[in-house]
Amino acid sequence: MKKINIGFIGAGNIAETMAKTISKIKEVESYAVSARDLKRSKAFAKKYGFKKFYSSYEEMLKDEKIDLVYIATPHSHHYEHIKLCLNNNKNVICEKAFTVNAKQAREVLILAKKKKLLLAEAIWTRYMPSRQIINDTIKSGIIGKVSSLTANLGYVINKVPRLIEPELAGGALLDVGIYTINFALMVFGNKISKIDSCCVKTKKGVDEQNSITLTFEDGKMAVLNSTMSALTNREGVINGDKGYMVIKNINNPESITVYSLDRKVLKTIKVPKQITGYEYQILSCVDAINNGKLECKEMPHEDILRVMNIMDTLRRSWKIKYPFEK
User: Fold this and answer.
1) CA distances (Å), origin 22, targets 8, 80, 95, 171, 182
2) pTM for the full model?
3) pLDDT per position as a tens digit, 159-208
4) Is the Cβ–Cβ distance between 212 and 195 less than 8 Å?
5) In whole angstroms, what is the distance from residue 311 CA to residue 317 CA?
6) Fewest C-beta in 10 Å: which of 46, 107, 227, 293?
7) Which string of DSSP letters, residue by residue, matches 59-102?
C-alpha cells in the first residue's frame, strides 16, 4: 500500500491531537500544515515533525505531493474549505460537524463524486472497533430484546467562541449532540419514524442544551441529551428485556458493562488499546484511497447526509438559523 502524504488545514487543538496520532501511524506521512498565520504553521510543523508549512490554505493545496487533506477548522468554515480542497483535486477528511446543514453537505458530496475524490467525515466514533463490539454484544442476546437507549454528552464549554457565536454556527447540537445522534443510529439503524425535541437557547440564540427523542419504525426509542454548560457522565445505556449494558463515554468508549435483570454485573468488556482513537478514521481513508473508493464504509455519504438532515430538522423546530443561512 502506498504511504499517504497528509496536509492539514488548521493548526488548533484538534489538529494537535491528530498530529500526535498520525506520527505513530506508519501508513501516513506528516507532510504539510497550513494556517492563516505563518508563525503558527511553522511552529506546528516543527513541534509535530511536518516536512512543510504554509501561510495559506491555497498555497498548500498547490502542492502535488499531498494525497489527503485533513480539515480542522470551525465547522462554520467546513463547506468553504472542503470545496477549496476538492477544486484543487485533493482527497478530504473533514472534522465533524461535516458542514452546517444538509444543503452544504449535498453540494460538496456531489462535487467529490464528480471529481472522483474521497470525501469523508471525521466523526471518530463511527470508525472505532467499539462500534462493532457494542452491536455484537446486542446480537449475542445477552440483554435480550432491545427496545430503548439513552445517551448523554456534556462539557463546560460555553465560553468557547466557536460554540457561542451564531456566525460560527455555535450551539451544543453540532458540536456534542451530533455524537448522541450518531450513537443512536449506530445501534438502532436509520429508520426513524418520529423526532421530538426541545432546547434551551443562549442569549445569542444558539442551543445551550437540548433533549431529543428518536422513535424508530420498529418501536425502539432513543432519548438523547447534550449540553455545553454542564459536565455529564457521557454514558450510553442500552436496555433489553434480559438486562442492560452501559457504555462508559459514548464520545470515546472506554468499557462496556453488561448487567442482568437483577442489576448484577454479568461481564465487563474492555475496548482495544488505541493511540488516541483518531487513528481508525485515518486508516479507513488510507484504505479507501489505495483502493480507489470515494467514501469510507464506516461513514458512507448517505449517512453523512442523514445526520445533517436530522440536525436541520431539529434546528428548524427550535427556530435556530445561523446568519449566513438567512
Assistant:
1) 11, 25, 15, 29, 24
2) 0.96
3) 999 999 999 999 999 999 999 999 999 999 999 999 999 999 999 999 99
4) yes
5) 10
6) 46
7) HHHT-TT--EEEE-S-GGGHHHHHHHHHHTT-EEEEESSSSSSH
